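Dear colleague,

Thank you for sharing your sequence with our group. We've completed the structure prediction you requested, and as agreed, I am returning the results in plain text so they can be pasted directly into your records. Please verify that the sequence below matches your submission; if there's any discrepancy, let me know and we will rerun it promptly.
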Amino acid sequence: MTTDERPLEPYDGILLLSFGGPEKPEDVLPFLRTVTAGKNIPDERLEEVGEHYYGFGGRSPINDQNRALLAALRVELDRRGISTPVIWGNRNFTPFTAEALAEAARQGMRRLVTVVTSAYSSYSSCRQYREDLAAAQESVAESGIVIELDKVRPYANHPGFARANTRLVTDAVRGALRDGVDREGIRLLFVTHSIPTAMDDTSGPGDEDGNAYSHQHIALGAAITDEVNATLDTDFAGELVFCSRSGPPSQPWLEPDVNDRLEELAAEGATTVVLAPIGFVSDHMEVVYDLDTEAAATADRLGLRLVRVPTVGVDPEFVSGLVDLVLERAAQARGEEPVVPAWPGRAPMPSVCAPGCCPNLRAAKPALCGRD
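Please find the predicted structure tokens below.
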């Protein structure tokens, strides 16, 4: 059978790997213990964080969003005549990655390509998933089954992700202008999850300068802003802000916080803020609580109109781009040299991470899909 008939050869399965989240109130504390394992955070503090989840019935939206993405990937694969099965695993909640690999083994799968629901390069958004894959692979190997695992490259500057975000932001700004908002009062903010500055400093290929996490967001935000201005004949200057900071106050994290920046913009005379969560693939807790609840309350208090741009979710262009990435990785695994598109910029991240890429600053752990 040729690769035209089996375009994902040598893979016999696709693993969608995500963060995971609780499904009901009694899941919240165990979930948070898993997320913070090794950080010695007392349950009292975790219960405080858990209030974010309890306010939504103890159920994170992320699992349903993963189910929707699984279904959308199946539709796109079928549309292209690709029958390769797709399974789902989580780093922090059932189905855990080891559970997903055990199921893959039961179905006879022996080599999987992984799609992580995180587009950017950093320890928490890339290497920590690679560590999870290594631990899950070892768990399954205890039963005598070896499953090989590869992953697609970080896709912050893959056209499927970047173009979908650009269209969504452009549509949101166009809608605000159509509603008669004074364009002089509009500000454009791109939002992502804050991380410790030390993690950002060491993000990216080990032989380069680091700060890949922040640089990737800044580059995408700038490219989107340029496209918005060219399409709508505007001259906005977008900027990057952060949400979901945690950790001790003494530890530096990436700033400014979205709420702090909203305060400043209101004082500067802004009337409308277009908020684009480009750091997130879907509307999980950091979006529905930190942005749709906290930031929305801040904007309301300040008299700002907040226009929240959708995440890419199951946008067809994004889903098609994920399938393109899987096909690209399969071609590479066969020893071919496929076209590897990148936008913004011309330098895609590698599918196999370099030694020292996005290191674990707490303790060295085995990680797959890299050269170290």
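Summary note from our side: The chain has a mean pLDDT of 95.

Kind regards,
the structure core
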